[in-house]
Design a protein that fits this description.
Length: 497
């Protein structure tokens, strides 16, 4: 019988952390929480004990560095009531006023006395859960590595004889990383990574957890008022489902006339073009079509505020207000300087899994790039997300803005291989006016028209003209139209919105 089947599991009080742990922490074992100052070790420890208090367990917080008052204040900033947690300020004998003499107190005796105080308090209180904060303070007391390891071994044996689950916190300030890993049943590492601009990114990983098939790798997390939010990394293979439903059509009939195949379920469509080419409006036309068909859609905006989004949508007769009131359309503002890639993916998952969203729009990939500057990592991250959405049968629409508005335009990153359908939008000049043209350059799931069509947007919707047989340079350079004016659309009075 495996160790995992023998050991009971206890929840940590952080549901998504329990997801990574495949249920929770092994009960009655010692676990190490390591990370630099500011990574949230104390907050995690308090959350673990508060969960124990809610389960009517006896919980003890042993502190060598902070006072009880400081810990209670920290908890109060999260709105947490620490009533029910026993705090024990473990003060080394040499630091006690009555022990401060001119004669030096031998460090090995001092350390031994400190450990003795700790074991006596544990025997007296008989807790079910313990936080010891921190290992680095004990390490500094010992000064000698051999003495430290001997005392830690003795402490471990003492704790293992009791029915207690222990989290020891280590800020790594006085240690070689990993020097204590062999002592513990499980090790959780917390990391804080500063960006050039914006909020720092927090990540965690399970270094080891004996007998537990935990989810490996780094997982983003955030500390907000009242909660530690963990965002488990996505494994697309765990989310297989039957892909059902007819292809999605746009609310614009003219667009459907040149692209009658629509957007297939379980596929990704990329809209590529310079800024102002109406990519977002086209994406919105499919999202609202889903709502009008009784389904739900989510629009993740990295670029626009809601006020700008709403004004633009209303000017195109695509007002989402009614759909939002009916909980059929969800607009999500994503701040690329504040959000982590893991948090973004988790929000997408919550809409798909909890709100049964069937259409997801990400606008734009350019700003999403800034959440993870490492391009290769971003591509792998995005690939996993798109694979997950495809397996769930979601219609995914990506908006990619090309660099430049007029003249030569370039893609900031080539993501076309991740897409099943690619729609290219471009500007061109003809008859003394600025015009737009679109072409479907790729459709992995079937045939499609190869023609290039002019399109125009106005308050009455989207108008698509006949195929432009004399338009050159739409893929490279500056598009040039040399055909007859009869092929062109008549400009509307409010054209250009």
């Amino acid at each position: 019988m495996s160790e995992q089947s023998k050991l009971p599991i206890i929840e940590t009080g952080i549901p998504e952390l329990d997801v990574i742990l495949r249920g929770g922490l092994p009960k009655n074992r010692l676990h190490l929480i390591e990370g630099a100052p500011g990574t949230g070790k104390t907050t995690l420890g308090l959350r673990f004990l508060l969960d124990g208090v809610n389960r009517n367990l006896r919980c003890l917080y042993v502190t060598l560095s902070e006072t009880k008052e400081e810990l209670v204040t920290t908890a109060s900033t999260h709105g947490w009531n620490t009533h029910g947690i026993e705090f024990f300020e473990l003060i080394p004998e040499e630091a006690q006023p009555e022990r401060q003499q001119t004669v030096l107190f031998p460090t090995e005796v001092e350390f031994g006395k400190t450990i003795e105080q700790l074991t006596e308090r544990i025997e007296e209180f008989s807790p079910d859960r313990i936080i010891i904060d921190s290992v680095s303070e004990l390490r500094m007391l010992a000064q000698d590595k051999l003495q430290f390891r001997l005392q830690m071994t003795s402490l471990k044996r003492f704790l293992q004889q009791r029915d207690v689950t222990v989290l020891l916190l280590d800020d790594l300030s006085e240690s070689d990383k990993g020097d204590l890993h062999s002592f513990f049943h499980g090790v959780l590492s917390l990391g804080l990574f500063e960006r050039d601009y914006g909020a720092a990114r927090r990540r965690m990983r399970i270094v080891k957890m004996r007998g537990v098939n935990f989810q490996s790798g780094w997982h983003d997390y955030a500390i907000v008022t009242g909660e530690i939010l963990v965002f488990p990394s996505l494994i697309a293979e765990e989310h297989e489902s039957d892909v059902q439903g007819a292809p999605l059509q746009s609310v614009f009939d003219d667009l459907n006339s040149v692209f009658p195949q629509g957007l297939d379920r379980g596929t990704t469509t990329m809209l590529i073009g310079p800024s102002g080419a109406a990519k977002s409006t086209i994406a919105m036309s499919y999202a609202l079509a889903a709502q009008r068909g009784g389904e739900s859609a989510s629009y993740f905006s990295f670029d626009e505020t809601y006020e700008t989004f709403q004004r633009r949508s209303e000017s195109m007769n695509l007002d989402p207000t009614e759909a939002m009131d009916a909980d059929k359309f969800f607009w999500r503002r994503m701040n690329p300087s504040r959000i982590s890639p893991g948090e973004f993916v988790w929000q997408v998952r919550r809409d798909v899994e909890d709100r049964n969203v069937r259409v997801v729009v990400i606008d734009s990939i350019n700003s999403y790039l800034s959440t993870m500057p490492e391009e290769q990592s971003l591509i792998l991250h995005l690939h996993e997300l798109l694979s997950y959405l495809n397996k769930r049968g979601i219609v995914t629409i990506l908006v990619l803005a090309q660099q430049g508005v007029v003249g030569d335009v370039e893609n900031p990153v080539d993501l076309s291989f991740l897409s099943d359908t690619v729609i290219l939008c471009r500007f061109f000049e003809a008859a003394g006016t600025l015009r737009r043209a679109l072409a479907i350059v790729k459709r992995r799931t079937g045939v499609h028209t190869l023609a290039i069509h002019e399109y125009r947007l106005s308050s009455s919707g989207m108008k698509v003209g006949p195929a432009l047989t004399e338009l050159r340079g739409i893929f490279t350079g500056v598009p040039v139209y040399t055909g007859a004016h009869e092929e062109l659309l008549d400009p509307a009075p409010n054209d250009g919105k």
